[in-house]
Amino acid sequence: MIGPAAIGDGDVLIVVDVQNDFCPGGALAVPRGDEVVPVVNNLAARFRNVVLTQDWHPRGHLSFASTHTGKRPFETINASYGPQVLWPDHCVQGTPGAALHLGLQIPHASLIIRKGMDAAIDSYSALYENDRTTPTGLVGYLRERRLTRIFLAGLAFDFCVRYSAEDACRESFAVFVVQDACRGIDVAGSVAATRASLAALGIACISAAAVAS
Fold this sequence. Notes:
It is a single chain. The protein contains four helices and eight strands, in the order E-H-E-E-E-E-H-E-H-E-H-E. The chain is of the alpha/beta class. The chain has a single domain (11-57, 90-210), classed as Rossmann fold (3-Layer(aba) Sandwich), CATH 3.40.50. The protein has a six-stranded parallel sheet. Strands 3-4 form a two-stranded antiparallel ribbon. The chain starts with 10 loop residues before the first strand and ends in a 7-residue tail after the last strand.
């Protein structure tokens, strides 16, 4: 019998934000973030369909603490769309920090989704900006390509991967999070909150070894 994680033509791997600024030495480094690179490369080789995402912020983005007088990174403000964590300036358009990690070897990736480009709204999810209504265009792409199962990997587990998983579930895709191909940043218990949210939605967290080509 074919297992639930056996890969077919209707499956897609979404590699979330494996960028220099999210890896050690970057402006918003996820602890051990670079460890996902070889895992992701190995995983991507099993998929016909791969999508990459990039945080791609203009200077002075709303989510940057430096944009708000007297605010520090990891404080929270109330944006028009709800609570917004403030971050160090990161993944600024055209800078080395915004580039995909050089170790990524996924030449067959068919699409790069750039997100967070609107200066007035952050965008964790690969599918929707943080108001949860403004689309990135990825949902339409997936449906036109008849891709029905989404496997998620990348950075950070408790923000961009989490929001992507939640939005994909809301759009009625089958969703798997490949947990050993992710790393978390853990702001105020965000990793535990992510695990609870994914479990409540019935989103499976699986290992890369469970994904059969």
